Amino acid sequence: MDATLLDAEAEAAVLRVYRQVFAVLAREAGAMIVDPELLDADQAILDAFAEAGSDGLTVEQATLACRSYPHDVIVRRFEVLRQYGAITKLVDRPNELRHRAAFAPYVMLMFLRRMSVQGGQGELHQLLTLEAHSVSDPKATEDQGLASLQRLTKVFRLLGNELAILVSTSTTAQLRENAQLAWGNERLIEQAEKVHRIVLDRWPTLHRACTSLRMSLAAYADAVQLAAGRLVERAGTTRALGLLPSETWVTFTRGSEPDVLAAVLDGLLFDAASPDFSPQTMVEAVETGRRSGTARMAPPRPTSDVEAPESAAATDREELRAEAERVLAGRPSVEIVEVVDDAGDWVTARRVLAELTAAHLHDELDYELVWSDGMRIDPSAGTPWATEGVFRKVSR
């Protein structure tokens, strides 16, 4: 009977802390927050209690301290936090107006905000470090070692499952947004393997649980390889420079020569002379343009003596060739500044430069567009700012 009561008391304590922790997520009893402003309102209420000290706060005082938010929002959130046990009466008696706040909800709020920024990698590293210390403790028991193995096995199974699902069902943009799941994976696996070695050396009878952990680590490593492969493949075909983590670009820029850095932007045309669109609009347009649909097979054509029309690709090639020859006008090369000036205005010059860039990048055309470091500045010209360069015919 005593053991049953003790078990019930322990479960009630866990449930009480659980309710306090997740109270910051509840929009109302039994619901979840869907508006980030509600999360900010919860933090404002808990901040007010932290400043109030041991005297606590009434509902009216809380709304006054959080007056930057609508009154009804603070009152509603205050009631929700009270229902979940995150806020309780200062003294448990009828008609008590003052309340106090528990620290668990605020800790959870900080945890959630850091998780949203760092993707949980920092917390996972800390968890692995704590597990290693736990199983290394001379007072640790076999049951504690088994519990550590089971926790880590579930963590890496969930990580591997999430990455595998993202690879098989999500778009490249969604995979990039969750790329933090794959960052630092080698270090994570090394830390988990360290826990595995410690447990297996101390308690050889736990070899089955150790095998499960190794399998989950292998599945996670495979999922990371698939995710990284898909991102690299997509970045290679679309030149989507944002698909790589910022740490990779920092290392690249610090350790590369100027020519290597300039080669990253080779073939890209920037409309810096007349920014007609906002940066957000330009980014959205570029991301939309990178999306490639599935290839569609041409429908079968009836056999006849009539020649089939020329393909669209061949037509585009010949149009680019005609534009390039028009610009060259029989010359082996032409200065870009001259091309810009002949266009008269930047809108026309932008179209011509785009076609010359396309001819330069076309595999079947023998033209080359080479930019130099100089810039022509002439206020009287139709396009005052023009980057120097040469468009020429080459032999391949």
Automatic annotation (TrEMBL):
Chain intervals for the UniProt region annotation (Disordered): 288-316
Protein name: DUF2397 family protein
